[in-house]
Amino acid sequence: MLKQNVTRRSVCGLIAAVIVCASGVDAQQASHWPSFRGIRGAGVADGDPLPANWNVPQGTGVLWKMPLSGLGHSSPVVWGTRVCVTTAKSGKADAGLRLGLYGDIASVADDTVHTWWLTCLDTVSGKVLFETKMHEGKPAVKRHTKSTHANSTLATDGVHLVAMLGSEGLHAFDMNGKPLWKTDLGVLDSGYYLAPAAQWEFGSSPVIHDGKVVVQVDVQQNSFLAAFDVTTGAERWRTARADVPTWSTPTIHEVAGRTQVLVNGWRHMGAYDFETGQEIWNLKSAGGDIPVPTPVTGHGLVYLTSAHGRGAPVFAVRETATGDVTLSGDATSNEHIAWSHPRDGAYMMSPVLYRGLLYVSKNNGVFAVFDALTGERVYQQRLGDGTTGFTASLVAGDGKVYFSSEDGDVFVVQAGRDFKLLATNPLGDYAMATPAIAGGTMFFRTGSAVIAVR
Predict the structure, then answer these.
(1) Are the C-beta atoms of residues 114 and 91 closer than 8 Å to each other?
(2) Higher pLDDT, residue 413 or 27
(3) Helix (H) or strand (E) holding 339
(4) In sequence order, which residues have a C-beta less than 8 Å from that of residue 423 and are 6 or more positions away?
């Protein structure tokens, strides 16, 4: 195990959320990254210094590296001293991935028995705290050549760990890996709607808020949004959605005392009431028919993007929107949409809103930076050589924005209105999962390991 440049965690990173650190940042913000892209799906963790330079093959800046077997694109989640991931292990000797920039819609032919694992590590040492087998059996649907059977990121509230395994069910565990409940949601096929035989597995992650687990299930037939009791698994509400399969994770957002569930989509981007599942507003996109990016919020706006098919839109919707807010004709704004761009959207990567700027990256490494309030394109830049794929979503903190390539190079860009590349840091393996940030440490999940750098 690699243990170079080990430093002790700050008091802020270790103490419970009731304490406020000297920096003024709530310790919950500093020591927890509870679901896909952290708190409220924002992908932002400020309050601690974050690394700009490291080199995993050389051991520079590495706190620890723990090998991980099996396949999984689920991101790490962090609660206090636990960092947890999910993995699916195939019975096939060669169950690898095909990475890079390509448009093949094929599925992987692997009908062997798989095992799904929940693994939690110590954030300081990387030591395995426990491994729990969540499910065993032949997958109900196939996966894409660039996908796995463990795509969805865990969600935790510090008491429960909830794993969405798609057709293999919604599972809940305590923080030591003890099974608590399981809900069977049936076969969930979120493959390509234009070619139903091309199965791609499931990708949306659960979120936990105020005692409920919310899941977005956009599949070939009978799509829905639902909330379950986090303690018992009992269904609290379910709202049908008339949308094609998507891979986006919902975002929780409060507006004037009312909690909303924000979702991406093609036929139905929008917001729902968290307590009842009732629709609040909806938007039909002019493009982006396989939505993946998670909604992000700030400045009284909801930012949504997608980029597959005819268009690649970016929308900034006012958080007070109600009803049908779809744009008419060639309009780029209306009463409820502050601004939009029809061709600057992202296909795979969720954007990040940081210090007044919205960073939106395409999966070929070209990213654009917009003024979050006006929609002005501040600059556009390419990372990599144009042949490298990018899938992991953007994260930011400490004045830096992090872009992870599939090849395992992490580009560190200085936040601001002028482009400045601070460093390009190798992880030593492919990287499809979005990193997590907590307590001044960055946690990367590569094809073969979980790595902590600080």
Answers:
(1) yes
(2) 413
(3) strand 337-341
(4) 52, 53, 411, 412
Instruction: Give me the chain's average pLDDT, please.
Output: 93
Query: What is the arrangement of strands in the sheet containing 421-426, beginning at the earlier edge strand?
Result: 395-397, 400-404, 409-414, 421-426
Residue 127's pLDDT is what? Answer: 98
CA–CA distances in Å: residue 135 to residues 115, 117, 149, 277:
6, 7, 11, 29
Q: Which residues lie closer than 8 Å to 157 by C-beta, 6 or more apart?
A: 34, 208, 230
Q: Cβ(216)–Cβ(263) under 8 Å?
A: yes
Domain 11-453 has CATH 2.130.10.10: yes
Closest by CA to 404, choosing from 453, 445, 448, is: 445
Residue at 88: amino acid letter: A
Q: Where are the domains of the chain?
A: 11-453
The whole-angstrom separation of Cα 7 and Cα 322 is 50
CA atoms within 13 A on the CB side of 347: 17
Count of residues in the chain: 454
What was the pLDDT predicted at 26?
A: 43
Q: Please report the DSSP string for 253-283 in residue order.
A: EEETTEEEEEE--SS-EEEEETTT--EEEEE
Token pair 């490298």: residue: 388
Q: What is the 3-state secondary structure (H, E, C) of 209-248?
A: ECCEEEEEECCCCCEEEEEEECCCCCEEEEEEECCCCCCC
Residue where the block lists tokens 């819609």: 105
The answer for 81, left when phi > 0, alpha when psi is -120 to 50, beta otherwise, is alpha
Tens-digit pLDDT profile for residues 405-435: 999 999 999 999 999 999 999 999 999 999 9
